[in-house]
Amino acid sequence: MRVPLEWLRSLVSLPDVSTEEIAERLTMFDLKLEEIVGGGITGPLTVGRVLEVRPEEQKNGKVINWCRVDVGALNEPSVPDAPGDDVPSRGIICGAHNFKPGDLVVVSLPGTFLPELGFEIGSRKTYGHVSDGMICSTKELGLPDDATTADGILVLEPGSAQPGDSATSLLGLDDQTLDLEVNPDRAYALSLRGVARDAALAFGVPFQDPADAVAVPTGSGGYPVRVEDPLGCPVFTTLVVTGVDPTRTTPSWMARRITQAGMRSISLSVDISNYVMLELGQPNHCYDRDKVAGDLVVRRAEAGESLTTLDDVKRTLTPEDLVIVDDNGIIGLAGVMGGASTELDDSSRNVVVEAAFWDPATIFRGERRHKLPSEAAKRYERGVDPELTLRGAARVAQLLVELGGGTLEPGHTTIGQAPARAAVTFPVDLPARISGLAISPEDAQLTFERNGCAVSREGDTFSVTPPSWRFDLNDPYDFVEEALRSAGYENVPSVLPTPTGGRGLSRSQVLRRRVGHVLAGTGLVEVTTLPFVGPADFDRLGLADEDPRRTQVLLENPLSSEEPGLTTTLLTGVLKAASLNVGRGHEDVAVDEIGRVFLPRPGAPDAPLYGVDRRPTPEELAVLDASLPEQPFHVAFALVGQRVRRGWSGPGRAADWADAIDVVRRLGEALHVELVVEQAQRAPFHPGRCAAFRLDGSVVGYAGELHPSVASAYGLPERAVAGEVDLDALIAASPEIGPRPEFSALPVAKEDLAFLVDADVTAESLRSALVSAHPLVESVRLFDVYTGDPVPEGQKSLAFALRLRAPDHTLTDTEITEARAALVSAAEQLGGVLR
Question: Which three-class secondary structure string do you get for 761-819?
């Protein structure tokens, strides 16, 4: 919203402060400054009349115009090498072609400084002539472009000025304009009326509403209207002005204000309509009374109907469009743009003035549907003051009478009435409690009243009815914000919250952090992925149709129809992350993720969708809780490429299934839980290279080499490995930290034993048997697996390093012998034979 300061000061008595200070105060009132426009032009910027245009083609094929321009008292006695050298004028080179002899243009003579160009205009020789100045475009003057001036010269309205007049004063270029960013919920600020009200609040000065100064006609007599869709059009008003002189032009003060506000001066009637919209915020439309037949009717369009709008485009309408019709058909797309059939022209003398309050949602959808943005629609879709229609139409009629010589016909037609606003109640101390400022109830009440609210106070409670133009005031905290705007956001103290004593990380949080450190220590990089997956993700993992992991919690409004539910496994995200990195040229990738998976509860009801207008009841909350899925934390990881990189120390080593198992082992060690490893088969792992991890008899995770088809589906190289573990199960089994363990300083007895076992006996099962074989066994570590000669076919050799120690004495030979015999006996229970 562009706000000319001269226009703003005419509506509110601002103190004698700088433009920058006004902009700063308005910014603190939520009307953010984008830029300050105008005010920087110096030197002889004048109005000129084009006397002669001589096109000259250049060697490069470009055509330039060598012009003779009359600038009144600033003419040179003659123009060398110009047509009509005997006539005082200025010779100027111009490359644009949208003007002709007789046109009034803006000329910057030598010595003029234009901020948009950043330099001072001088007299210089170019294209074989001395160009004594420049004919200006809107861009060079810092004015907004439109379809007639884009990439061309600004041509002034005939009769609007004389050669030699100051263009700076004519166009208001010596005035400054604030370009403000208006939030969508503050539609009232898309008018000088709204900005002036906030400016008065910001500086604590009185405000006189310009709408109150408009004389409102009484009685019936406006143009007849029928509203068949009162929901789409709650209020519709018409007035009739006759005898308007179509030859009258827009006064310079009005044209200047409209131009400064970012619109183009067109004709008196159109300019008056736009002026009132900018002044009061009430869009309106003027019909040629002589082109309208019968009553004006507001209804929905019928399928197949069409309308040629003011931009000369024929538009096909739908039953969702709200339209205005007469006996001849549709004459306007409500709230967006009028029709060409009833447009005012150079002969229009009688005018029907229409102002209405339209349903914002209907206007928003219609504007988007037809891709037809307009200044009126921009205001209607955000909500205009529904009580302003009569005053807005009366203001248009008033100016048509004053400036156009017309006569206002008695009476008016108004159908419907403005929707009533509901009162909002809240404690009088709420603004102070929420803002942290000392806002007294009296100050808050004064702020509300100055904003146009009706305020009543009963004890410690406010009852505030917002004004008709403030659609953003609906709940108590909106009024807190309003009180805070007046008190000043900049006065809100910056206070750090004081943490409550005795609190910190929970046990689960501490252990999850420990797991994160362990994973980082093994060389993995943590990633965070979205938890949304679909059937295609499960297909890539190779899950069978009956696999329970395919049963998802589905979302009511998913981000993508291809990913309609929440994930039941973190492997989908981890493998995607690994694939992304491989696709970007990384050969060695090691990533992990700690996050929740979502497992539907058997028999759980679907979650109901409640409204947001109230807090759910305890019964409704209970239903919601019953529908929630299990959400345990899992940890997943993927290893691709070399686990040990090649270098001067050796050739390196590719990651394999043993590395995946080792990662899970380290997690168990970090949490002090004993994980039992056994061979398993489970998608998405290779059936012969997959390990299951048991904790207290229950499987808590899997790790191993990915199935070749899964690796291929994700674009990963062969032999990539991965794993996933139920982290909540590990944390639940992790023992509480107790006293510091006692470590024996006595010497250890070392024994290395190798056993021949059948090939299907796992190393883990034999190791577990050896650990529990005798109380003196301190540790058992597998250090060699061997098959081949002389080991019989179908068997393998497992070699273990054993450490024996007593806590209170040095072991004797007899004790060591007994322990060794117990170890051999334990191996024999599994069919093992000592080598």
Answer: CCHHHHHHHHHCCCCCEEEEEEEEEECCCCCCCCEEEEEEEEEECCCCCCCCHHHHHHH
